[in-house]
Amino acid sequence: MTQLAVEIYPTPDVHMECADNLDFMRGLANESMKLIVTSPPYNIGKAYERRRSLDAYMFSQAQVISECIRLLHPKGSICWQIGNHITTNREVVPLDIVLYPLFKSHGLILRNRIIWHFEHGLHCASRFSGRYETILWFTKGKDYTFNLDPIRVPSKYPNKKYFKGPNAGELSCNPLGKNPCDVWGIPNVKCNHVEKTIHPCQFPVELMERLVLSMTDEGDAVFDPYMGVGSAVIAALLHGRIGYGCDIVQEYVDIAWQRIRELRAGRLRIRPMGKPIYDPTKPNGGYR
User: Which of 44, 47, 134, 163 is most buried (CB neighbours < 10 A)?
Assistant: First the structure.
């Protein structure tokens, strides 16, 4: 593996280790995390996972989810971003459906089932090509942090006004923009993405930023128990939060530290939050 010249000790705003997530979590305080956000392995045999029976996979997930809930702040959120497991006979098993009961068994409340839509991925010949994954957003209680204004998107008709009634002539939309809804079109990290590293299933920082900004406040702690190359931690640091993460692959942890060094030096390349998706039918792809 490539050895990088990186930090190896936690700093006040970053705590990352190459460690089994259950071992890492046992050293963290109860109810200390305002947001737990992750994308666990899908049990499909990627380089960083060992394919197991679906029952064994679910047992492992149950252990991790239980420990995450211990760490979750009373006003916190847990976001489990997941795709499909594909069986040996090519049957599709939607993991958000099979994992839902695990969260409900702990009394969590589902706030949204967010659809993350992207344009690129594997092309299928015997079924339609998959172009979305889901984020299950749960909270621990009825009182939870949610900040809509930092993640509003441009309104379709930004200057639309009421044409009659007591508010005639006034804006009929929020001047800061509209709610982004529960279907998010954000490019996934493929070979030509500015954030691409060696990780085969890398989170786009923009996806993490939207969750961090809406579900935490400055100074809050954000934790990713399957952090990969650290996109969730980077999103936390970008917005004044404290980042926690762990992964069992040392090379991924090394890269995460390297990305944070580049972030602090102002050299980390990140796709800007809210940047329009490239459209080849428009001049310059639709970019100004």
Answer: 134
Distance CA 30, CA 278 (A): 43
| Secondary structure tally for the chain: helices H, strands E | 6, 10
> How many angstroms from the chain centroid is the CA of residue 152?
17
Nearest to 238 by CA among 275, 207, 274, 263: 263
The architecture in CATH of the region 14-286 reads 3-Layer(aba) Sandwich (3.40)
Burial of 221 (0-12, 13-18, 19+ CB in 10 A): buried
Which amino acid belongs to residue 95?
A: L
192: left (phi > 0), else alpha (psi -120 to 50), else beta?
alpha
Helices 250-264 and 231-238 cross at an angle (nearest 10°) of 20
Q: What is the mean pLDDT of residues 16-24?
A: 97
In order of 116, 124, 207, 280, the CA distances from 130 in angstroms are 11, 8, 18, 21
- How many residues comprise the chain? 288
Tell me the C-alpha distance between 188 and 92, whole Å: 21
pLDDT tens digits, one per residue of 47-97: 555 667 888 889 999 999 999 999 999 999 999 999 988 887 888 899 999
- Map residue 185 onto helix, strand or coil: strand
pLDDT tens track for 102-112:
999 999 999 99
Alpha carbon distance 261, 268 (integer Å): 8
Token pair of 86, please? 């594909």
The model's pTM? 0.88
CB neighbour list of residue 111: distance below 8 Å, 6 or more residues apart? 77, 137, 138, 139, 144
| Residue partners of 150: CB distance under 8 A and separation at least 6 | 213, 214
E strands along 51-100, which residues? 72-82, 84-86, 92-94
Q: How far apart, in whole angstroms, are the C-alpha atoms of residue 264 and residue 261?
A: 5
pLDDT at 6: 43
